[in-house]
């Protein structure tokens, strides 16, 4: 007995423009009630992928399936309005000449008053039905756009940078409310964003896209803590890089030796450390290295500059050995003077070793 097919399945999508491959062999599956974020920099092919799934653009290769049924290949194509796929864009695209209630009811068949009222209540806009879009704030317009997208009860909702037009102070609350409503509806969601924070906050699964390809896919925790390469690590946060060569499956750094099993001797590698995992050894005071299993060897460095960032302080150091510039984040206010010599340690369990050639 076979299991239930995924709500959305995309197989080997390819899209070319003027001989340039914009989407290159993209495959995805999304279950009912799951939120998947297609994450990547501008121009990497995210929105083009969304347009092909929506049916407003045609792929050059690959297939798209909803609930196990083919809806589009390079020959057969179900039109967009019959795909049971909702769309929500960053500009909300509300009709200015229609009231809020009319916007939400647009596309519904038959009596829609009960559905509209129920959705307005669920997006905390009860009584807003007679208003017009120009009378609403950006956050209120976003809620109306969400209600309109959900009104026909689509199996799948595609969201293209839906929160980028909102004031930063509003985003977190509206994202959380939106996510709760989508989960309640059981809708499969594919959200396109270039913001790692948004993807980490909303997604059950992240598909990291780069130059038309999905380079890594998995739960946010796994993507963040086991990046596939240096570029993937750097997309989610600032990083520090130590460069070294492998000899005898080891690579030497100011913080001691790192294992590099299976890497040929002479290979240049990059050891990636996030600023929050670079620790200041406040207790050292001239003693030998503190041999904690987590942090290993301490290394001397000189403070170049320090800045308070609101929730934490960012301190930049120049390493005594090797001369690399490294950044460390310290909770609260910590502003040592430039020229101060300090000892640094690292979270070895949070370091990543990658070949320098990627």
Automatic annotation (TrEMBL):
InterPro entries attached to this UniProt entry: AAA+_ATPase, ABC_SmlMolc_Importer, ABC_transporter-like_ATP-bd, ABC_transporter-like_CS, ABC_transpr_FbpC, Mo/tungstate-bd_C_term_dom, P-loop_NTPase, Transp-assoc_OB_typ2
SMART domains assigned: AAA
Keyword Cell cycle (UniProt): no
Taxonomic path: Bacteria, Pseudomonadati, Pseudomonadota, Alphaproteobacteria, Rhodobacterales
Domain ABC transporter: 8-236
Keyword annotations of the record: ATP-binding, Cell inner membrane, Cell membrane, Ion transport, Iron, Iron transport, Membrane, Nucleotide-binding, Translocase, Transport
PANTHER family: PUTRESCINE TRANSPORT ATP-BINDING PROTEIN POTG, SPERMIDINE/PUTRESCINE IMPORT ATP-BINDING PROTEIN POTA
GO molecular function: ATP binding
One Pfam family linked to the record: ABC_tran
SUPFAM superfamilies hit by this protein: MOP-like, P-loop containing nucleoside triphosphate hydrolases
Official protein name in the record: ABC transporter ATP-binding protein
Highest rank taxon of the organism: Bacteria
């Amino acid at each position: 007995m076979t299991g239930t097919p995924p709500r959305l399945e995309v197989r080997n999508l390819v899209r070319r423009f003027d001989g340039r491959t914009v989407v290159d062999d993209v495959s995805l599956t999304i279950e009912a009630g799951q939120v998947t974020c297609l994450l990547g920099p501008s121009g990497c092919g995210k929105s083009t992928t969304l347009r092909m799934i929506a049916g407003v653009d045609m792929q050059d290769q690959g297939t798209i399936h909803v609930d196990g049924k083919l809806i589009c290949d390079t020959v057969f194509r179900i039109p967009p309005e019959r795909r049971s796929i909702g769309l929500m864009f960053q500009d909300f695209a509300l009709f200015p000449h229609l009231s809020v209630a009319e916007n939400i009811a647009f596309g519904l068949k038959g009596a829609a008053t009960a559905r509209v009222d129920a959705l307005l209540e669920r997006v905390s806009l009860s009584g807003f039905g007679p208003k017009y879009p120009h009378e609403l704030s950006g956050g209120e317009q976003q809620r109306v756009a969400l209600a309109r997208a959900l009104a026909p009860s689509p199996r799948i909702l595609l969201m293209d940078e839906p929160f980028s037009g909102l004031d930063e102070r509003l985003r977190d609350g509206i994202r959380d409310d939106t996510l709760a409503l989508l989960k309640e509806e059981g809708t499969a969601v594919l959200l396109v964003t270039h913001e790692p924070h948004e993807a980490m906050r909303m997604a059950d699964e992240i598909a990291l896209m780069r130059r038309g390809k999905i380079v890594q896919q998995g739960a946010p925790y796994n993507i963040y803590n086991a990046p596939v390469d240096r570029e993937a690590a750097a997309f989610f946060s600032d990083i520090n890089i130590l460069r070294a060569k492998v000899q005898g499956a080891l690579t030497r750094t100011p913080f001691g030796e790192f294992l590099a099993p299976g890497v040929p001797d002479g290979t240049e590698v990059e050891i990636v450390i996030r600023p929050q995992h670079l620790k200041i050894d406040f207790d050292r005071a001239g003693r030998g290295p503190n041999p904690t299993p987590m942090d290993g060897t301490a290394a001397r460095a000189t403070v170049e500059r320090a800045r308070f960032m609101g929730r934490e302080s960012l301190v930049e150091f120049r390493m005594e050995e090797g001369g690399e510039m490294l950044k460390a984040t310290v909770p609260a206010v910590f502003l040592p003077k430039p020229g101060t010599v300090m000892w640094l340690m690292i979270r070895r369990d949070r370091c990543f070793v990658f070949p320098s050639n990627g």
